[in-house]
Amino acid sequence: MSTADDYDSLSKEEREARDKEDRLRELAEQAALPYTWSQELGEVDVVIPVPKGTRARDLVIVLQKKKLSVGLKGQDKILDGELCKEIKVEDSTWTVQDSQSVLVHLEKVNKEQWWENVLTHHPKIDTRKIEPGNSKLSDLDGETRGMVEKMMFDNQQKQMGKPTSDELKKMEALKKFQAAHPEMDFSKAKIS
């Protein structure tokens, strides 16, 4: 594990490489979570994918000063744990969007502090690198943004038991091949 002193002794190029590496690791850790989140100094928004057709009455959601829990009735919770900082419960809300995701809006008690994570047991982000109003996906460079969007899509698909983008590509390639070779029998083919 690197220390701050160690970082100070690096050249500008080494620092940039380390920062990029840390940023990619952080993005990968965040993309693996069962939700996406964004924050302003005074609030945190958490978006949790749920099966299409989910309605408010299908959900069990607990919002407390230091606790957040979201799940579908009769199933394991999608997320459950201690919030990294306190929230104003009376000003925090949740809503179902397009019957396929839940938006949980959390009002921070301390509006002068960036959160490192939503739940204390989840991977942290480096809050020193946050630039106000600049922590949105649209601000990433094209390649990084594409990687993050793919990881988020694949993670969402897995959550819902659907094929990932790579699996969808394979299925598409197979369909094209089958269409190009109608004389071949694919009925007993096993796809891996």
What does this structure look like?
This protein has helices at residues 4-8, 12-31, 142-159, 165-180, and strands at residues 36-39, 43-49, 59-64, 67-72, 77-82, 93-97, 101-107. 31% of the residues lie in helices and 21% in strands. A 4-stranded antiparallel β-sheet has the order 1-2-7-6. It is built from 4 helices and 7 strands; from the N terminus they run H-H-E-E-E-E-E-E-E-H-H. It is α+β, with helices and mostly antiparallel strands. It has a domain at 35-131: Immunoglobulin-like (Sandwich), CATH 2.60.40.790. Residues 1-23 are annotated as: Disordered. Keywords: Cytoplasm. Residues 30-119 form the CS domain. It is found in: Cytoplasm.
Q: Topology of this protein?
A:
Elements: H1 4-8, H2 12-31, E1 36-39, E2 43-49, E3 59-64, E4 67-72, E5 77-82, E6 93-97, E7 101-107, H3 142-159, H4 165-180
Structural class: alpha+beta
Number of helices: 4
Radius of gyration: 21 Å
Order of neighbouring strands in the sheet with most strands: 1-2-7-6
Secondary-structure element string: HHEEEEEEEHH
Biggest sheet architecture: 4 strands, antiparallel
Amount of beta strand: 15-25%
For this structure, the CATH topology of the domain at 35-131 is Immunoglobulin-like
What top-tier CATH class of the domain at 35-131 fits best? Mainly Beta
